[in-house]
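Propose amino acids for all 173 sites.
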């Protein structure tokens, strides 16, 4: 079966959530774990749109919480596949928190998740190629290779010596 080539817009996903009392801590702030869960779902939807397969989360890169998100805020999570490798894809997530009554809206998080496509037997399967189109998509595509090398080194799946593009950032020949 031939694998269709896809563009980032094919995986673009927007998910909204309303922060309810059960999502918050005693300071009425959204709990980090709840946000990570919502981000995982949005990223998985995006990865599935690219792969048209069952996908599993292989890794989550550094996620920092810039400021608290409050009870009653509306969360918008935007997800898009930045690069496809062999059986895995990198998904970028941008998160905004909006207080509708006051009209304030602020970016709260950015993150990269990696998903691996599996068949019905749980075996890894190749994913469609991704061709970036816009300047921003091309930049994210280029950076994805270095981010992949870093996360594979950190997870013990790649030797630092093999991370040519990542090393080039630090050592000029
Ligand atoms: C019955 C059906 C029901 C359907 C229902 C439908 C509903 C569907 C909705 C789903 C919506 C919710 C979706 C939530 C998604 C989860 O939360 S899934 C649950 C949490 N995740 C897991 O359980 C995954 C557990 N881990 C694994 O299964 C295996 O480690 C993996 C990820 C498949 C990788 O297996 P492996 O043997 O290490 O495979 P390996 O051949 O070495 O590597 C395969 C690829 O993984 C990459 N990889 C491996 N480790 C890493 C790492 N640490 N970092 C980055 N990449 C890595 C490799 O680089 C490689 O990529 P490519 O070079 O091929 O592109």
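Proposal:
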């Amino acid at each position: 079966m031939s694998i269709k080539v896809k563009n980032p817009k094919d995986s673009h996903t927007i998910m909204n959530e309303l922060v309810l009392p059960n999502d918050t801590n005693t300071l009425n702030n959204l709990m980090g774990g709840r946000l990570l869960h919502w981000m995982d779902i949005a990223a998985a939807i995006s990865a599935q749109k690219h792969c048209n397969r069952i996908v599993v989360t292989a890794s989550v890169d550094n996620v920092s919480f810039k400021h608290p998100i409050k009870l009653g805020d509306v969360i918008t999570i935007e997800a898009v596949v930045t690069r496809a490798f062999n059986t895995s894809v990198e998904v970028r997530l941008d998160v905004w928190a909006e207080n509708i009554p006051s009209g304030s809206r602020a970016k709260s998080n950015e993150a990269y998740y990696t998903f691996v496509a599996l068949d019905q037997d749980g075996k890894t399967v190749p994913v469609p190629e991704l061709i970036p189109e816009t300047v921003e998509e091309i930049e994210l595509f280029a950076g994805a290779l270095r981010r992949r090398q870093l996360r594979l080194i950190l997870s013990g799946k790649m030797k630092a010596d093999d991370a040519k593009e990542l090393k080039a950032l630090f050592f000029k020949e």
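Residues 100 and 111 are 24 Å apart (CA to CA). Residues 40-41, 44, 54, 56-59, 85-88, 114, 116, 124, 151-152, 155, 157 surround Palmitoyl-CoA (CB under 6 Å).
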